Amino acid sequence: MIHDGRRSGQLTRAEARSLRRESQAIGALEDRFADDGLSPSEQDELAARVEGLRSLTIAQRQAKTR
C-alpha cells in the first residue's frame, strides 16, 4: 500500500519514509512481544497500531487525489 502510493505519486518520499518507519516499529514491537508469546492485550495493541497505520496511509493517499 505504501509502495503503491509512492509509485502513483499519492505519497511524497517523506510521507512514504515516515509510514515505512512506523511499519518497521510495529514489526519490532511484534518481535519483542512474540519472545514469550502474544497476550491478548499485546495482540490488541498490535492490531490497533496496524489499523492506525493503514488508516493514515489511506488518508494521506486520498488527500493527494482531492
Quick description:
83% of the residues lie in helices and 0% in strands. The protein has 66 residues and is mainly alpha-helical.
Percent of sequence in beta strands: under 5%
Number of domains: 1
Helical stretch tally: 3
Give me the secondary-structure category: mainly alpha
Query: CA-to-CA gap between the ends?
Result: 18 Å
Largest sheet: none
The strand count comes to 0
Outline: elongated
Radius of gyration: 14 Å
What is the percent of helical residues? over 70%
Written account of the structure:
There is one protein chain. This protein is mainly alpha-helical. It has one domain (2-65). Helices cover 83% and strands 0% of the residues. The protein contains 3 helices and no strands. The chain is elongated. The mean pLDDT is 93.
Question: Mind sketching the topology for me?
Answer:
Elements lengths: L1 H7 L4 H22 L5 H26 L1
Helix pairs in contact: 1-2, 2-3
Structural descriptors:
66 residues; 3 helices
